[in-house]
Specification:
Radius of gyration: 27 Å
Number of domains: 4
CATH class of the largest domain: Alpha Beta
Structural class: alpha/beta
Distance between the termini: 43 Å
CATH architecture of the largest domain: Alpha-Beta Barrel
Largest sheet: 7 strands, antiparallel
Bound molecules: beta-D-glucopyranose
CATH topology of the largest domain: TIM Barrel
Strand content: 15-25%
Shape: globular
Number of helices: 19
Helix content: 10-25%
Number of strands: 36
Amino acid sequence: MADEDELDRLLGKLTLRTAVRLLTGATTWRTAAEASVDLGQLVLSDGPAGVRGEGWDERDTSVLLPSATALAATWDEPLVEELGGLLASEARRKGVHVVLAPNLNLHRSPLAGRHFECFSEDPLLTARTGAALVRGIQAHGVAATAKHFVANDAETDRLTADASIDERTLREVHLAPFEAAVAAGVRLVMAGYNRVNGTTMTAHELLTRPLKDEWGFDGVVVSDWGAVRGTRDTARAGLDLQMPGPAGEWGESLARAVEAGEVAERAVTDKVRRLLGLAAWCGVIGGPDRPARPPLRSRQARALARRAVAAGSVLLANRGVLPLYPGHLGTVAVVGAPSARTRTQGGGSAGVFPQDEVSLLDGIRAGLRGRARVVHVPGPAPDGPPPPLDMTLAADPRTAAPGVLLRVLDSCGSELYAGHRRGGRQLEPPLPPGAHTVEISARLHPRTSGAWRIGVAGFGRLSLHLDGDPLLDGEFAATTDDPAVLHVSPPTRVVTARLTRGTTPLLVARRELVPGTGRATVVGAEPPAPRAAEALAAAARAAREADVAVVVVGTGEQQESEGRDRTDLGLGPEQDALVRAVARANPRTVAVVNSGGPVELPWRDEVGALLLAWFPGQEAGGGLADVLLGRTEPGGRLPTTWPATLTDAPVTRTRPEAGRISYDEGVHVGHRGWLRARRTPAYWFGHGLGYTTWEYERLSGPERTPAGEDLTVRVRLRNTGTRPGREVVQIYLARPGPSAVDHPERWLAGWAAVRARPGESAVAQVRIPARALCHWDVRAGAWRTEPGPCRILAGRSAGDLPLSLEVDVLDRP
Ligand code: BGC
């Protein structure tokens, strides 16, 4: 790693133009190299649930972890740190120096499209989980990126939306997780697309104060991809690196602005110094990359990812049904489309091509093999576009190998490139000079006869042909310049076509490469679905005849994705009817919810048990089967308050009004807002059951504490159940006395996990950081602690706090 003198020496070798060239990416995922200072390229890659690497190609797979919501639900920093280590190992394997994770935005509205990708509604849980991931990634010499700075909490009009937030709320709520990431040593911070209080984040003064000046951030501020919209304002602000490149608003325009005296040269020098410092930290300056720690072996990685599934899954209710005892089971009915096609990740730039995907059905089958019979009924077809062609349905028309043929054609239809691919989702095909059309073709092997749904996604001129007959041909103009939608998840056009079992019709999808229409082309097909009534009847029959039914429901491809927010939280009438039909047929029904964020569960009191699986990553099935079959406890506690209905939630709005999105809930985010509004959610923040029960016996702590100092409290609790368990003991604070400060009714101040065997007691020692008692004093521009009584509450969720004590906060002498 280079010291300051060494950086000065290197800086002295750069001219203004060579310096400026380094401040814009060389490609979509790489920074520029510079031979005069022996600087190599830095490779950056998304995150957060896996490290994709430079390509966006199904042949280059990644270990896929559970969604961020699931990681936060573990309330387990050592585990999150270990998972960060796994991401670093993946990064090393793929030659990536910088992982674009974690996402530290908050669950402000349950409708937010990237909810799954953010940890929590709570600033402290987000801060501690995010810092753990940063430490875990960076411990192995791979840089982490805290994103998206700041208040990029929704997707609607995200390139322009202006979050209107008061200073105290910014400091206490939205900036706090970033402050913790900086304290954890994060090497990069990503400036978001959005505006805050009128200024776009890539040009915002917050990049300087507090980020650099007050918190002492000495790393690199990178723009979100394409978020730089001006030269001078962004260069004068604390932004250091514009991504992607090589085009953009800086480059020669920036060099000229410096020469014209419109941007100070020292601003450029500071940016380059930071970039060189990062390059030195990552080992891409002054010689070859430092030797990589050998990547985690696949078996170790898979075991860790599987452990994380169980640790993050949240058991919301259990009426004596779980765990299942395999020895007592004859037949288990596994019902619902997501049981066989478990949705392992959310949509958008976070997406990776997973190494494998173990469905819940496969996990249960493996867990019960040789012990019980598993009957699967898919239930009604899920909503949304047909799934991308895969190796079970499609074969390359040239080689007959499972998969598809990808071709790039010139304007005369001549082939410029041809290659075999595994599936119909092609996001970054190679584009040789003269490329005019991308074509994906396959011979289909339908196993069902009838009206299939066939879909093609992409912008520009699209066509679909089946055995030479046109199914679709049209011009679909790009409706957005949001890169996530344009390049990753364009809308799908769906047609129906009759396919006959035993035939092998040739499906050809083509997309003309009109500039500005993005890089994605996706072709999918779905077999005819049985009528909803029949599907329900079959599911109910299977449930009735089984000892236990596991019914899996979840959100579809079109919901929960970057680039768009949800408009409702419903799972749809068919999935709701499915759960009800199964639960009516068999009281021993376990409902498993496969979503990245809250959904309405109107039948939640009608099922025997209710388990949140989140988007569990590639080891979904194994990890969830571990929980269902009692090999391990469900470890998760809700990282976000779960509304019964959308209309109950205190903050729902994601659509800006006249360009502005008003954060008028102030510091009352998440459960704090529910408490203030005196509303009761379906499940409180922090809630989640294990397989044992606990008695909270005693809370002890000091009678008084000086302002500005951490304090420690102890909670004694006893395992009153019949199984060993882990309990997440949560501490909340409240200020009972009169106050000039608008305190939340209560707020999370710390937690600690304990383990105990049946009958044993355990003591949780929880440190409450001094900051938890502070508010941001806008007038003084400083943190302040109000003296006076403070109530400390201990328990298992924001809504279940059986113990409390009062501590007197003393004014500083
Ligand atoms: C997302 C970022 C991501 C970047 C690069 C943007 O659209 O907002 O989270 O890191 O793309 O893929």
